[in-house]
TrEMBL record:
Organismal lineage: Bacteria, Bacillati, Bacillota, Bacilli, Bacillales
Record key words, sorted: Acyltransferase, Amino-acid biosynthesis, Branched-chain amino acid biosynthesis, Leucine biosynthesis, Manganese, Metal-binding, Transferase
Pathway where it operates: Amino-acid biosynthesis; L-leucine biosynthesis; L-leucine from 3-methyl-2-oxobutanoate: step 1/4
Organism: Paenibacillus thailandensis
Record EC number: 2.3.3.13
UniProt protein name: 2-isopropylmalate synthase
Domain Pyruvate carboxyltransferase: 8-270
Gene3D superfamilies cross-referenced by the UniProt entry: 1.10.238.260, 3.30.160.270, Aldolase class I (3.20.20.70)
A single GO molecular function term of this UniProt record: 2-isopropylmalate synthase activity
UniProt record similarity statement: Belongs to the alpha-IPM synthase/homocitrate synthase family. LeuA type 1 subfamily.
C-alpha cells in the first residue's frame, strides 16, 4: 500500500442507525454477534446502539464495549444529560471511546419537532458538549439535517461546540437530499468559516433517499472529511445509509485515482453482509452493488465468452477476494454452447460432439420456458440425452404430512447413480422442511451440516414460484444448492440434494466446481 494515500476512517452505525430500519430490530445477543463480525471486518469505530433507549440496548452496548477492545466505541446520545449519562456509563469499559452527541440544526426540525429557537439549540449544544467533556476526551457533534439548514447557523453552531471541546464535527445529510456539489460546498464552507474549523476532524453521514449516499460521501472526503459513517448492506432509516461495502470497494478499486485507503479487510465483506442480512431479516436486492447475487453473474453469451477467456473483460473486482462465492455464469436463453460446455466440465462431464447439439437444443427450449436453467436441470438434460445419470443422487419422490397439532412426517425416495437403486427414507420434524432434510441426511453420506436456508418468492398469485438456496458445510468447505419450484418444501429439498451432490463430486476427486461455486438445482 502506498503510504501517501490518505486514510479514511470507517464509522459503522449498523447497530444504531441501521437497526432503526422498520422491522430490523435485533435482540441484544444477536447484536453482539454482529458487532464481533463488524470488528473483524476492520472498521475503525462501532456505534453499537442508543443506550438510553432500553435496558436491553444499554446492556448490549455495555457488553460490546467490554469485549471489543480493538475498536473504538461511540456512545450515542441526544443533547440531554440523561442520554449522556447512559452513553458514558454503557461505554466506560471500552479501550477507546467517544461520545456522539446530536441535535437538529434545520429550521423545519427546530420549529416543528424540537419547538426551540436557534439560540436555544446553541445553548443546549454548548452545555451538553461541556458536560460530556468531563467524561471523555473525544466528542463527536452532529448537526442533524445540516444539508437543509441555514449555512450561517450551521457555522455558528459548529463554532460554539468547538469552543466547548468537540473534536469531530459531523455534517449529516439526514434526509439524503443533497447533491454532491452541495456537500462539497457545505464541508468547505464550515471548515474555512467556523472559528476553530481547521482544528477538528470532519465526518459525513449520508442517507440514500436519492441514491446519492456513496457519491455524497466521496464528495465530503474531497472537501476534507476524514471519516465516513456507513452501515452494512446500506441498512437504515427509509432508503438507508451509505453502504459500507460500496464505499470500501470504491476506495479499494479506484485507490490509485482517489489516493485513499481504509482499514477494511475486504475478505470479510461477504460474510458480514450475510450475517447482517440474516439477523435483521433484510433480504439483499439481486442488483445490489458488491453483495447482490447478480453483481458478479452474467447471462449474455458475449459476456460469458469474454469472461471465460479473461475475467477482466467484464469484471472490475474479484468477488472471491471479498469472500463472495464465484458463480459468474448464469445459464439462460442468451447463453452460448461454450458456456454450457464450461459448466459441465466443472462437474467432470464431457459431452461428445454428436450429443452436444441435442443437449444445446433441449437447453434452449427449457431456457425459453424457465428463463434460467439451473445446474441440476442441465445435468438432467445430459442424462436424458446420453441415457446416463451424471448426478450421484436424484430425489425421485417426496411426500410430507403436516398438521397444526402434530409433528410433520416426511418420506423421501432417492435414486443412487452407483447401483441405480431407489431407496425410501422417513423422518419427523417440528416443520416440514426439517423432516425432509432429516430424510435426505439418512440417504446421502455427505449430507453434512445444514448451514443456511434462504427462501424467496419469485412471483405473485396462486401459481407463484419460490426459490430455495441451501448452504451446507462439508470438510470445512461451503457448498450451495438452489432450486425453483411452486412447492417451496420441494424446492428446499432439491436445493439440499444439489448442494450434497456438489460435495460428493468434490470429495470424489472429480473435476467438480470449487467449494466457493454454486451448484443449482431446479
Amino acid at each position: 500500500m502506498n503510504d501517501n494515500k490518505r486514510k479514511i476512517q470507517i464509522f459503522d452505525t449498523t447497530l444504531r442507525d441501521g437497526e432503526q430500519a422498520p422491522g430490523a430490530s435485533i435482540d441484544p445477543e444477536r447484536k453482539i454477534v454482529i458487532a464481533r463480525q463488524i470488528a473483524k471486518l476492520g472498521v475503525d469505530v462501532i456505534e453499537p446502539g442508543f443506550p438510553i433507549s432500553s435496558p436491553g440496548e444499554f446492556a448490549a452496548v455495555q457488553q460490546i464495549s467490554r469485549e471489543l477492545q480493538n475498536v473504538e466505541i461511540a456512545g450515542f446520545a441526544r443533547a440531554v444529560k440523561a442520554d449522556i449519562d447512559a452513553a458514558v456509563k454503557a461505554t466506560q469499559d471500552a479501550a477507546r471511546r467517544r461520545l456522539h452527541l446530536f441535535i437538529s440544526s434545520s429550521d423545519i426540525h427546530l420549529n416543528y419537532q424540537l419547538k426551540k429557537s436557534r439560540a436555544d439549540v446553541i445553548r443546549m449544544a454548548k452545555e451538553m458538549v461541556a458536560y460530556g467533556k468531563q467524561f471523555v476526551d473525544e466528542i463527536e457533534f452532529s448537526a442533524m439535517d445540516s444539508t437543509r439548514s441555514d449555512r450561517s447557523f450551521v457555522i455558528e453552531l459548529v463554532e460554539a461546540v468547538i469552543a466547548e471541546g468537540a473534536t469531530i464535527i459531523n455534517l449529516p445529510d439526514t434526509l439524503g437530499y443533497a447533491l454532491p456539489h452541495e456537500i462539497d460546498e457545505l464541508f468547505r464552507s464550515v471548515r474555512q468559516s467556523a472559528r476553530g474549523g481547521e482544528t477538528v476532524r470532519y465526518s459525513a453521514h449520508c442517507h440514500n433517499d436519492l441514491g446519492l449516499a456513496a457519491a455524497n460521501s466521496l464528495a465530503a472526503i474531497g472537501a476534507g472529511a476524514s471519516q465516513i459513517e456507513v452501515t452494512v448492506n446500506g441498512v437504515g432509516e427509509r432508503a438507508g445509509n451509505c453502504s459500507l461495502e460500496e464505499l470500501a470497494m470504491i476506495i479499494e478499486t479506484r485507490k490509485e485515482a482517489l489516493q485513499l485507503a481504509t482499514n477494511i479487510q475486504i475478505g470479510e465483506i461477504y460474510e458480514t453482509s450475510r450475517v447482517v442480512s440474516r439477523a435483521m431479516h433484510s433480504p439483499i436486492a439481486y442488483n445490489k452493488p458488491i453483495v447482490g447475487r447478480n453483481a458478479f453473474q452474467h447471462e449474455s453469451g458475449i459476456h460469458q465468452d469474454g469472461l471465460l477467456k479473461n475475467r477482466n473483460t467484464y469484471e472490475i473486482m474479484d468477488p472471491e477476494a471479498m469472500g463472495i462465492p464465484r458463480s459468474m455464469i448464469v445459464l439462460g436463453r442468451h447463453s452460448g454452447s461454450h458456456a454450457i460446455r464450461h459448466r459441465l466440465s466443472e462437474y467432470g462431464i464431457d459431452v461428445a460432439d454428436e450429443h452436444m447439439k441435442e443437449v444445446y437444443d433441449r437447453f434452449k427450449r427449457l431456457a425459453d420456458e424457465k428463463k434460467i436453467v439451473t445446474d441440476d436441470e442441465l445435468i438432467r438434460i445430459v442424462g436424458e440425452t446420453t441415457d446416463t445419470q451424471p448426478d450421484p443422487y436424484v430425489m425421485t419422490d417426496l411426500q410430507v404430512l403436516s398438521g397444526s397439532n402434530r409433528s410433520r412426517v416426511a418420506s423421501v425416495t432417492i435414486k443412487e447413480s452407483g447401483d441405480g437403486e431407489e431407496r425410501s427414507y422417513t423422518a419427523v420434524g417440528a416443520g416440514p422442511i426439517e423432516a425432509v432434510i432429516r430424510c435426505i441426511q439418512q440417504a446421502i453420506p455427505v449430507a453434512a451440516e445444514f448451514e443456511d436456508l434462504e427462501l424467496h418468492s419469485l412471483s405473485t398469485g396462486e401459481d407463484a414460484h419460490g426459490e430455495a438456496v441451501v448452504s451446507i458445510i462439508y470438510n470445512d468447505q461451503r457448498y450451495r444448492g438452489t432450486s425453483i419450484h411452486k412447492d417451496i418444501v420441494f424446492a428446499a429439498a432439491q436445493a439440499y440434494v444439489a448442494a450434497c451432490n456438489q460435495a460428493v463430486m468434490a470429495s470424489s476427486g472429480s473435476a467438480a466446481p470449487k467449494a466457493s461455486a454454486e451448484n443449482q438445482a431446479g
